[in-house]
Amino acid sequence: MRRDEDLAKGLQQGRRDDLVELVERHHSPLLGYLYRMTGGDRPLAEDLAQETFVRVLRGIGRYQYPRPFKPWLYSIATNLARDYYKQADQRHTISMPDDPPPGESDAPEERLIFDMQTQQIALALMSLPAHQREAVVLRYYQELSLAEIAEALTIPVGTVKSRLSLGISRLRELVLERE
Fold first, then answer.
1. Is 76 helix (H, G, I), strand (E, B) or coil?
2. What is the pLDDT along the chain (179 residues), one digit of tens a residue?
3. Which of 66, 78, 87, 150 is deepest in the core (most CB within 10 A)?
4. What is the tally of structural domains in the chain?
């Protein structure tokens, strides 16, 4: 199996099939990330995921091999989500998730528990400042390393640690308040 970085280099060299493989590998996790970043707005998350891959294709010439591909991809997605909420006509609101993130179970009892937990966590996540939410979701949902998060968000590793610590502390407080 070829590494993401090799696929990105192949895409730079005009091999469009490498884009297909990158999309197949990263679409679902990226959609899950954007779903959480948008407070459960699945149509918006899908639009942002699609736009992320469009930007990857357009900006592949700026990708620097052998830079890790995954943080570069999440950097693009994060910036798109930030830009969406910066638009004057958009309002950052807390919304309840309509659908589970991709890949979640549909068994009735599991779904009920999932729905309750998802609502509680989604509300708490959306209550965090965006910079803390980004770090928490990238670390605990997308399982990026501290170094990868630092690269994706273009901040020092120490700042990632601080944002994670503050974000987790605040999430804990918010969840306990709602119980």
1. helix
2. 899 999 999 999 999 999 999 999 999 999 999 999 998 899 999 999 999 999 999 999 999 999 999 999 999 999 999 999 888 455 544 444 445 555 544 566 666 665 667 677 778 888 999 999 999 999 999 999 999 999 999 999 999 999 999 999 999 898 888 76
3. 78
4. 2
Distance CA 116, CA 166 (A): 24
| pTM for this predicted structure | 0.80
* Tokens linked to 66: 């052998």
Residue where a domain terminates, one of 91, 118, 133? 91
Q: Residue 116 sits in a domain of what CATH number?
A: 1.10.10.10
Q: Which domain holds residue 134?
A: 105-179
Q: Are 66 and 76 in contact (CB under 8 A)?
A: no
Report the distance separating Cα 176 and Cα 158, nearest Å: 27
Residue 99 inside a domain? The answer is no
1 and 86 within one domain? yes
